[in-house]
Write a sequence for this structure.
């Protein structure tokens, strides 16, 4: 719901929400029921900047709380946009906590930078007092780095399932979900981390018995040998083929990698197809006429 | 979830959430199913301060978006606290948009101050560029004032009802709900306003067919002639009696007034009892052994 050229205002975000709403409304008219998982990178970035800028006046917030916050604000924009497509659409946004393992290897070496750039002085202060892990970002300043642990369970799956039974569109798992861990006594607590939204999508699709998972991106399809003379588009690949491509490092970790991994997860665990394609072509992607399909072996 | 003596940190808010969670868990053990509406005044205040402090770096947010945001963050804290009371509790937080009338008289003369105090210069700037209505607050600076319109419909009632059918506790309508209006074409948009959470509770209770509405406060019961030698506690009053007290100005507009009005609304529209009492005595309030009960005529 935000692109690099956008100004980041709520008005601009609403316009992006309308683009998505048109696509989803089209699907509902054709009889689909939709579970929507959205990202929240730029929005969480804004929240963390606000928290830092106001830190001398009000207590700082935390990354997990910011994910919960953006589930509210982005669900709100999406719902407005959807109702304005059709008053008859039944839409729900369900707060979604997603469990990750406290011993996920990601926590040992956090790599995902989030939030504002800090001076060295402020970075040292935050590392000391807030126990944040900080990294210098190629001369632009210091940033907080967090883990990107694997989603292992959806705390609110019962509520999402109840909503799906009566709604046309359920918005859940936004930003990959609010990351929580359980200690050895089962006590649950939030943790500052970023869960990949595509992996959360795959898990939700699996738990809900979805007929198909579609990962919507800015590109039309998945390619291998990207940028080389041998580059070619993939219309369909099996789980085994996709895994081989992943092992070969065909898909960058920060972009197409998790999307292909999520498609593999869904196809492998459910036996049903997953697809990756452009948001503007969603109808054709669902029909197998566009995008890249991942099918069980 | 925040008291005047609290520092406003997430850690402190979680402790308050635990206090509420204990009470709600106790009710669930006795077989109640609970729909919880919480306030969000201090939390929205924090959000608006963050928005102002970061306004030169990221676009400002709006009050309606902040309500959506606090539904996420406060639902998150409450859910954690509830799961940590009992892993078996089934809890859902549903984003709640509440409709108000575009011609609600509140919009003509906004009276509710929200957010930070501004200098006269900044206040003039915000009034001019953001079309905010500003008021001088007894020498402490300038503040934004917004309307407090009456809730007339709950956009997400279907989703809340679906959640209630499968959950022990549903958190919805937080902060009174995200205020939205419809124009003559039915187009829905957000509006910067504060909906009274007790009036939203009454409406939700009515729409869901709740057996009872309980307004939890810091005081044990409702009193008339408060602070006078003739002061007396009310154990029970009919809708007609409560209305007479309201007309007499027995209950201040900013505190007990809307609570009694909400109890009246619920008892009048449903024929079922409403009660007002202390959060620590909720069991006795439900049993009619504590607090103040409002019953249909």
């Amino acid at each position: 719901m935000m692109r690099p050229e956008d100004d980041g205002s709520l008005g601009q975000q609403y316009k992006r929400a309308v683009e998505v709403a048109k696509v989803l409304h089209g699907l509902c008219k054709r009889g689909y029921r939709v579970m929507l998982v959205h990202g929240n990178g730029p929005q969480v970035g804004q929240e963390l900047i606000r928290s830092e800028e106001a830190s001398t006046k009000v207590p700082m917030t935390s990354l997990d709380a910011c994910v919960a916050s953006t589930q509210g604000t982005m669900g709100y924009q999406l719902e407005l946009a959807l109702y304005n497509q059709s008053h008859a659409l039944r839409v729900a946004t369900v707060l979604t906590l997603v469990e990750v393992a406290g011993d996920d290897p990601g926590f040992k070496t956090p790599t995902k930078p989030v939030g504002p750039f800090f001076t060295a002085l402020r970075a040292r202060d935050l590392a000391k007092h807030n126990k944040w892990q900080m990294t210098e970002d190629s001369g632009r300043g210091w940033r907080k780095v967090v883990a990107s642990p694997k989603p292992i369970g959806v705390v609110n799956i019962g509520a999402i399932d109840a909503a799906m039974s009566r709604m046309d569109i359920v918005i859940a798992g936004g930003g990959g979900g609010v990351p929580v861990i359980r200690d050895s006594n089962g006590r649950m607590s939030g943790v500052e981390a970023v869960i990949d939204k595509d992996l959360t999508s795959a898990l939700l699709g699996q738990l809900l018995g979805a007929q198909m998972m579609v990962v919507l991106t800015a590109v039309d399809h998945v390619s291998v040998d990207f940028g080389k003379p041998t580059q070619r588009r993939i219309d369909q690949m099996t789980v085994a083929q996709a895994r081989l491509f992943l092992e070969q490092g065909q898909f960058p970790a920060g972009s197409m990698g998790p999307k292909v991994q999520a498609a593999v997860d869904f196809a492998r665990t459910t036996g049903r197809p997953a697809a990756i394609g452009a948001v503007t072509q969603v109808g054709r992607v669902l029909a197998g006429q566009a995008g890249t399909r991942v099918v069980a072996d």
Summary: Chain B touches chain A through 59 residues (CB under 8 Å). Residues 7-109+147-210 of chain B form a domain with the Carbamate kinase fold (CATH 3.40.1160.10).
